[in-house]
Amino acid sequence: MSILRSLALCALLAPLAALPARAQFAEQSQSSASSIPQSHVIQADALNQLLQAGKQKPALLQVGSHLMYMQAHIPGSQYAGPGSQPEGLAKLRTHVAKLPKDQLIVLYCGCCPWNRCPNIGPAYAELARLGYTNMKVLYIAANFGADWVSKGYAVEKGE
Amino acid sequence: MQWKRASSVAAALLLGASLSFGQGSLLNKPAPDFTRTTLDGKSLALSSLRGRVVLLNFWATWCAPCQAELPRFAAWQRQYAAQGFSVVAVSMDDGPEAPRALIRRLQPGFPVVMGDDDLATLYGGVLGLPVSFLIGRDGTVVERIEGETDLAALEARIAKLLASPSSH
Q1: Which CATH superfamily is domain A33-151 in?
Q2: Residue B55 contacts by C-beta under 8 Å, 6 or more apart in sequence?
Q3: pTM here?
Q4: Is pLDDT larger for residue B17 or for residue A86?
Q5: Can you give the CATH number for the domain in which B71 is found?
């Protein structure tokens, strides 16, 4: 009986895929994290070294959850809106509007495992579409907590 | 200026060290109590569920793995409620509109509250989803479950907890 109930619930949930809040998942296959070229992916240790060296000053943009950004983010980074949503991409466009096309931009999210992240792929694709050529995307295998904070890299809290 | 920069770097490093994010920091400790208003307007205190096994689930509408879990949790809520099992869901969405719409359609049968920075910090930082806490009947945290998990195995652990009311 419980199996029947579960099946019925799954059937009930299926149409939810058409809801606006779910639309991001439909887009994921077209602009998922796995579509980002490896040459544009940066590992956490390499980014940490880059930031520590201080020779280059990348524009660091978090393109995921604001609530998670408030809890912890990479020092110097700015919140640029969730890449999975049109209003997030609009915010991202505003953030980069005055940057030269060859500016080093580092995008990161870390809301979810890399291959399930709804934000990073669309954000990368949007900047590529706008002609930005010097982008790096921070590879976060599991989430920001496990792959950045727990490894002891610097973070700060707040808006 | 350099001193100021060095100070802020040190502050950032200290903050990193002070963030209590991490596996197991709440294990075998009392689950931090909180009171929030559910999305359907009722007041919920976690401590009011003392005596029940509670699955406290942090989720969001944009989290794909969370979407796989919610229907299962709803099924467990119905299946095990009479044995003393409760699910409490904390939405980490940036606003209540999306979770409210989802919950209205899903009708999961368990309370859903909105999360915030304070609540996330109370639970050691929620810097990735999904994250769940399995809380025993005595109110202590038995397990922190992070990321995609084997739901069948989790259900078995819940059933085991429910079957042993004396422990936890």
Answers
A1: Rhodanese-like domain (3.40.250.10)
A2: B73, B76, B85, B86, B87, B88, B132, B133, B134, B135, B158
A3: 0.82
A4: A86
A5: 3.40.30.10
